[in-house]
Amino acid sequence: MKSAYFALTLAICVPPIAVAQSSPSETTLVHVSIAFSLTVPAPLAQAAPLFGPEGERPWSGGNWDPHFLFPTPAKDVEGAVFTVQHGEHRSVWVNTRFDLEAGRMQYVYFLPDLFVCSIDVALHVADATHTKVDVTYARTALRPEANEHMRAQGREDSEQGKDWEMRSLRILPARRTATQRSIGTVGTGWLLRGMHGL
Prior knowledge:
- The protein is an alpha+beta fold.
- The chain has helices spanning about 45, 55-60, 145-155, 160-185, 190-195, and strands at about 30-40, 65-70, 80-85, 90-100, 105-110, 115-125, 130-140.
- Helix 2 packs across helix 4 (about 160-185).
């Protein structure tokens, strides 16, 4: 994506989960695609950096810890390659699109021999102080044993809109307070100044 500072407009659009029917001798590989939307109370130029791998760290909690292979030091750029540990598994991620100005990000990641996932993030100006974020997850099992995991991930993905929105808000009050202290002002300008450079 927990804060009394903002009134949000949350629009979660969850299309039906597209899955194959399973059977004991299932050979069809499951593909699940889920889309959702959320609204962030920040202009696009300040909201967009929140959706890079490094920009996500402050609002994602302790469960997001990308380890960059390229570039080093870590930086949110198109072409970045990083890994994320998932228990005993390690996923490999590639940032296939990272265009802050256009508000577009895309990631492809995989767990070898289990599944491949693409995540498409598209930000749009909602108004002068809000950004609408459309997110699409598309997951494909690489072997039948991963089919049920794909179905479960699809169900979890459908709940991500609320979670992403609330998590992203965690950073905003803290930035507001820090910025107010550093510049000695109160007002709507805190967001623009406080989130610059994420």
